[in-house]
Amino acid sequence: MSTSIPFLTAGEFYDRVSPVRAVRALRDTLRAGFDPAEDHQRISSRLSSGEFLLMPSEAGKIAGIKVLSVAPGNPARNLPRIQGTYILFDSETLTPRQLIDGVALTNVRTAAVSLAAIEDALLAGDGPLRVVLYGAGQQGMSHLLTLRAVLQGRREIESVTAVVRSAQNYAHLEDIEVVAAGSSRADEATAAAGLVLCTTTSREPLFDAQLVGPAAVVVAVGSHEPDARELPAALLGRSTVVVEDIATALRECGDVVMAIAEGELSAQDLVPMARAVRDPQLLRGHGPVVFKSSGMAWEDLVLGGAAVEAESE
């Protein structure tokens, strides 16, 4: 093994893997027959100041693992809450081939997974799209960037409203209406939205289920714990609920776990993301569409592979 493994910085990764390329790579992988149910489970190890997350995966000629640290106290220190590195290996020899900035990979991957899951539902809608974004942090902005890139020339975005706890902290956002959580304006915007993006660390539902319109698409990415949720159970009960993998959702997705516990949803109601991508008709004409993501290791592997492929083009 070489004593020097090449490292792909955040800037280099962003240059190689655009939002559109990331969405296409994920959708192509699912269309080609990859089954997320066969992916390896995320491993969590508690630490005194947070936790380690280990995310191993293997597909074809590559294997990889993302090593992340989650330190809830870091924002108060002006440090990232999540930090880490991705290690890409040759799957036959298990020789390390590439190191990739883990935060950049996560930022691109999380939003790309959301858009890969809901792209067909968004394109099936009529007229300009009104977007409500709960949480205007890094993941919120990544979702908005990816949304704009994927819909460019395909569907107009009429407006974006960001719902945040402290509106004054986001006065710098241009072309985005910023409103306070719990305000009447936040409720009005949510009721009128065609797309609601939930990218917060909230452990309780962000809004009332009845605010969401019958043709709306809702994405929730803020939690990967069975006792935390951003969405009310009643919303999932009247929606087509798409998840990356059913077993993973039942283990990690509090939005799903608690909706089932409260009798609003059953495991049989869940639609795997791979099925939704292969059969877009599943997401049309059946009330709201909810995509609940907790993040899976195969997604990082796909985008890590895409970054390596881009180098040779």
UniProtKB/TrEMBL annotation:
SUPFAM superfamilies hit by this protein: NAD(P)-binding Rossmann-fold domains (SSF51735)
Class of the enzyme per the UniProt entry, highest EC level: lyase
UniProt KW Cytoplasm keyword: no
Family matches, as InterPro entries: NAD(P)-bd_dom_sf, ODC_Mu_crystall, ODC_N
Assigned EC number: 4.3.1.12
Any matching Pfam family: OCD_Mu_crystall
Molecular function, one GO term: ornithine cyclodeaminase activity
Protein name: Ornithine cyclodeaminase
Taxonomic lineage of the native organism: Bacteria, Bacillati, Actinomycetota, Actinomycetes, Micrococcales
